[in-house]
Structure formats: C-alpha cells, structure tokens
C-alpha cells in the first residue's frame, strides 16, 4: 500500500480532555441532540432543530454548498457550535463509480480494493462527507438476497481481507484538504443470513455460527481502525440487532473492548414496533439505547423520548454521557471543530480524474470472471470482420453503475458498444441490436425484436450477447426468488444460439444467476457483474484479448434455486453426498437430492484465464506443529499455456475432528501470481495454527489438537491435498 491510513480507535488524551470540557457544558437536550442523525425529510423545521443543537449528524445531502450551509447552522448559530458529522453511502465509488463490491472482491486483490476505496474517499470528502456507510461486510450465502451485491461474498477469510482493505482505503490519511473520513462497517450483524434470501427477513442462527462466520469481518474492520458500526434491521434468534445487548455490549464493548459509535440503520429503532419488540417509540428508544445503540438514524425514537427516560430514571444520564463522548471523540478526531467547511471548488479538481478513471478500468478488468471458454473461442482477436452485438445491456449507460452508485452518472458510463468501438479496428463492422428489454413489464414480448437479432447474428462472424439484470434487480429490498435471465432474454438467447453462429455471453448482474441452459449451450460466458463506469471498455479489452481475465468467484453459483444456500464451507453431515451412504430399506441414503446435483454450477474461487495452470509437488514443511506454531505448506504452479496469466492460488484447510463439527473446507490463504508462458513458481503459505480455531462447546475460541487436511489449488473444488497434525505441545 503506498498510503497510510488513520486508526480512529487510537486513544488521544488531548481529544478526551476537549470532549470532557465540552460535555460538561452541555444540557441534557443538547446531549440527546448529538445522538440524532437526520436526513432532509426528517422534519420541516430541520434548520431550527440544528440551531437548537437537537441534531448531531445528517445523511444523504447533496454537494459541498448544501453541506456547508447546514454546517454553518450548527457551528455558527447553535449555542455550543458543535459541528455536524455528515454521512453518505459511498459503497463502490463516488463520482468515479467502481464495480459493485461483490465484483471488486472477485479481484482477490485487497491492495487494489484499498486504492479504489481511497479514491472514493477522496472524491467524497471534498464535498464535506465525513462518514462513509461502508464497507458492507455481511457474509452472504444466498444469491436470492439482493444485497449479496454489496459485500465480499460467502467466505469469512476473504470477507475479513476485504473488510480490512476497504477500511484502510476509506480512512486514508492523505485525503485532499487535510480532510478525514471514518468508515462504518455494516450491517451488524448477520444481515446476510436472512431466511429464504428475503431482505430484512428473520435470522435464526446459532451463537457459534454468529461468532465463527458473521462477526469476524466486523472485528477485522475495527482492527483496521473503523470507529463506527451500523446496527442491522434484522432480528437474530428473536432479538432485533438494533436492540440486542449481546451484540452491542457483550461482544462490542466487553469482549472486543471497542469504543466506537453504534449507529442504527435507517429507522431500525422505529421498526422495533413492526418486530413486535417495542409497543411504541418510547419503548423502542428505551430498549435500543439501553442495549447499546448510540445514534438514531432518522430519529423517530431518541429525540422524542431519551431525555424523559433519563428523568424517569429508566436511562442513566451517565450512559447518555458515554454515548455522547463517543460521538464527540469522533468529531474531534475527524478535525471537524478545526475544519467544518469544505471548499466547493475542490470537487472538480479531485473527482473523475483520468487517474481515477484508469483505476476504475483496472478494477473492472480484474473483477470479471471467465466462466466458460469452450474451444478457446475467446479472445476473439481483432481480425474479425463483423460482430453482432445483441442484448438489452449491450449499449446500456445506466445499469453498469450498479446498486448504490452515489454520484455516478449515466453520462460517465462506457457501454459495451462504446468499448468495442474504441478498440476494434476501423474496418470491423458492429451490428448492434438490443433484441428485447431487460425485464418485460408489459406481460408480453413488447420491444422484443428477435428477428432483427437473428438477422444480425446470421450476418456476423460471432454474436456477442450482453444479458442480465438491471441494477435495481439487486441491492437493498431487491431479492429474487427466480434467478434466471429476466424478461425475454432467455428466449432471445435461444433464438440467437439456434442460428448456429459462435456465441459469447457477457453477463451483467448483482448476484450469481441460475443458467443451466446457457452453460450447456453457449461456448463462452464472461461474468461482468455491474462493472462501473468503465465496464464497457473492460469487457471489450477482455473479449478481444488486450487483457486476460483473472477474476475468481467469491460466491458459489447454484445450478438451481433449490440448492440454495449452497457454499463451499458447509458441514459434512452424517451422510455426506460424496460418501457411500448407508443402506436403509433398499437404497443408499446420503445427503443428496433426487433431482439435482449437490455441487454448484461454478464453485467458490473459480475462474478461467486465457492460459492454463498446473499445480504440482505439494510440500508441508513439518507434518506436526504445535498450537503456537505455523503450518508452512507450498506447491509449484506452472503456466502451461501460451500466454501470460494471473493465477489466484488458494490454500484451504480442514479440521477433521472437533468437539463441534467443522466445515469441510476453509480458505486460510491466497496469493496472486503472474506467470509467463512456461514459467513455474513455488507458492508458499505460512498459516498460524492459532488461525485454525473455532468457538467450542463453551463458545470459547480454541484450536484443538488433531489431524488436519490442507489443499493448495485454483478453487474450492480442487487442489493438491496434504495432511498435518496439530500437537498440544
Ligand atoms: C439503508 C441501508 C443502509 C444504508 C442506510 C443509509 O436502508 O440499509 O445500508 O447505509 O439506509 O442510506
């Protein structure tokens, strides 16, 4: 990393002294005001509320001028002049929009992801934004859930790596104008475990699963310096996360000793009434504050009830003081008292620079995953005469922005048509036919022009179809029960394939899709996700071969919705699908389906290149290691093809026997290699034995001595296998 990052959890006696001095001057009403976050729709007397010190933070404002205006009300027209902290959803870029987070994670390049996050912070801070409501670190194993688009996928180890990378980038210490931004990992916690993949739905998981799977990325984010967290909408085992003392006090404060600010998600306190967890907003304020929420986003509870609850001795003012201290400490650390305003002229100098646009292109190129390439149809090369470019997303300037695209603008997006035009030679002919809409809301095939698409394909050397989801078909509140191609796209695809011409499909989506027909009938498939403002050029570079694909999946692709949830780190069960099973009655009984395979369409970690790699000679330095030791395992990786390529070498481990059951595989390391044709290199992993633990029967983190398996390979479904033993001492 060529920049340093700011750790907002670093203690500062000087700041603490300033906090105490200010706190001692505050009335109870002003203290409660610091615990209220509002947006422009909160109340029509917002200006007065700010002047009276009744608001501590604003979110989702538009531009430096507007933010400066509200800051002036707080700083120059309120009694104590406490500046506001300004929050915004900067999820994958600000004006320079990068690929959606699940795509960024598919780069398996934390340093690059950090760089992109720093660019987003640079572009946001010059507008006066101090608080980025990201990274979204929810582990997600259900592609029906639309918010799988916003995170780093199914795996804990990779999820932690991306959480760290994003916090480090967002909190870069060299932002323009000396400004600072604090990250806000979300949604605490286990939001991605929503039953049936329906957003906001019930979460009912064991404490062990919570501790081993869903909490580690938050701890990684805090260890990287994040000093705020956003509590989630969902309940966990009957207790809503935004009023959950186990999450907000036992884990955050007592176990982790973390002293950051807990911000509730958007009116999550008001939603306690819908949960049937609070009878009214007064009870919602009481239960959420006493559980550990510091700040009420959209303020329907705290502003109206906290002060009275203190007067009724149901909330201790000392607890109010603690929450206010955390907020004030953050505002001092952000430098808001010294520099509450921003220079509106900075935005034009910092946003959407050529350097930022080049980085968006690099991230897009490295995020795309080649899923199939039968007969090496790709790369197409540049000597093609005619390309039929078909599909509703082929010349789309909006949907590559993806969900949560902040200040992204359609005008900044390069479509696939733009990208191909930019890189194809003059004499090449591009026949562009949308063919149908992304999703057909008319109930008929309105807008479908299959004939024109078929004619274009017949007139071309190759047909490239750009298909998939609109950005609003993933993201918040956008879960899908059916994960095939929306609208008439499957019919369009089949019509073009029926021409017998070579077909390439480029998929744009915010989630894994269910594509059995396509996988069987189409020779080349590139998963491009929603690739940001440079998606079109990145796709063109990969299709024509200027860049080789190197993305690797961070979520398993299901063969059908019936398999979901499907993820590689599952438990073995007593009758594993790959076992002989048990003869019961007259048939072998195993944990399988009668009508579907048990393996995914594409496994976690999977992706093809334009070359091939071979793995050999796995070596384990010591077959026995102690609990405080390090397992050293290596293997040779060779580029066995005829062009250079990037391979993401992955290392997995399995704890064969435990006092609780353990996953059949867990990612414990990855390294990226660029190898020239014929080049081979030994890749070495040093895995601290301490990292092989889990929460045992007493829910204590332990590493148990015993037998382990280890793999080094290209994805979760294959690799060279070895064994080692962990000894007590
Ligand atoms: C939304 C989302 C959260 C976002 C917040 C503010 O409902 O759940 O991710 O940061 O509100 O926009």
Residue fraction in strands? 15-25%
The strand line-up of the biggest sheet is 5-4-3-2-1-11
Share of helical residues = 25-40%
Whole-number average pLDDT? 97
Described by strand count, sense and barrel closure, the largest sheet is: 6 strands, parallel
- By DSSP, the count of extended strands is 29
The CATH homologous superfamily of the largest domain: Glycoside hydrolase, family 3, N-terminal domain
CATH class of the largest domain: Alpha Beta
The gross shape turns out to be globular
Bound molecules: alpha-D-glucopyranose
Structure, described:
The chain has 729 residues and is α/β, with parallel strands linked by helices. The protein folds into three domains: 52-346, TIM Barrel (Alpha-Beta Barrel); 368-544, Glycoside hydrolase family 3 C-terminal domain (Rossmann fold); 613-727, Immunoglobulin-like (Sandwich), CATH 2.60.40. It has 21 helices and 29 strands. The strands form eight sheets. It has a six-stranded parallel β-sheet, with helices on one face. The longest helix is centred in the middle third of the chain and has 17 residues, at 317-333. It is globular. The protein starts with 12 loop residues before the first helix and ends with a strand. The structure holds alpha-D-glucopyranose. Residues 59, 89, 133, 186, 265-266, 476 line the site of alpha-D-glucopyranose.
